[in-house]
Amino acid sequence: MIPAILAILAAEPATARSPAIDAATLAAHPPVKTVNTPPPAQRRARPYPSCAEGCLSAIEAVTYASYLGDKAGVAGIFDMAVIEVGQQDGMFYLNSEKDYRDRNCLTVAVTPGAMRAIAGTNDLAQIRKRLNGHRVIVRGIARQVRIDFTTGGQPSGKYYYQVHVRVAEAEQVHIAT
User: Fold this and answer.
1) pLDDT of residue 54
2) How many domains does the chain have?
3) How far apart are CA 83 and CA 128, in angstroms?
4) What is the model's pLDDT at position 19?
5) Taking the mean position of all CA atoms in its chain, how far away is CA 158?
6) I need a labelling partner for 174 at 20 to 30 A (CA). Which of 19, 81, 100, 157 fits?
7) How far is residue 103's CA from residue 115's CA, in Å, rounded to a whole number?
8) Residue 128 domain-assigned (yes or no)
9) Residue 104: inside a domain
């Protein structure tokens, strides 16, 4: 059984990549009700599941997000082994593959404040020591992100895609092992 997935779709015209949805499909899959959530300080922390059921693996997250493209995302709970940790432009990146450019790599992009709360530091060497080889469970939205190659600070016209789950709050991440 495939875990339940919530796809957040932006309004876009039908294209070869996103064909028109017929009335029968719409009737079988009614739109998701939008709710306003309280600010983080007012929310109660939810317990993390064991991920035996209901969580998406890194490969599943990448597969579903890639299928949906850059106009949508997959909301869920993701179970991932941290294979590599990187840092660029102030953000920290937890990768499920040694090479972050691998098409099967799920990248958890963590803000400095959230990383400080998760790992107790913003020192990259200490974060690598603390998280490499550990399993993390992450709540968020896996989205396909276009990465442009640059020459002299300008886009070169060449690009590739990564799948990111953005983490702005430490409560989104649980270190499982």
Assistant:
1) 82
2) 1
3) 9
4) 47
5) 23
6) 100
7) 25
8) yes
9) yes
What are 23's two structure tokens?
Answer: 């009335």
Q: Do the Cβ atoms of 139 and 176 come closer than 8 Å?
A: no
**Res 53: pLDDT:** 72
CATH number at residue 122: 2.40.50
Q: How many CA atoms lie within 13 A of 155 on its CB side?
A: 7
Look at residue 66 and tell me whether its pLDDT is greater than 80: yes
Lookup result for tokens 């991440």: 173
Distance of CA 140 to the CA centre of its chain: 6
In angstroms, what CA-CA distances link 131 with 17, 84, 96, 124?
37, 9, 12, 10
Q: Considering the domain boundaries, does residue 18 fall inside one?
A: no
pLDDT digits (tens, 9 = 90+) for 126-152: 999 999 999 999 999 999 999 999 999
Q: Which domain holds residue 161?
A: 49-175
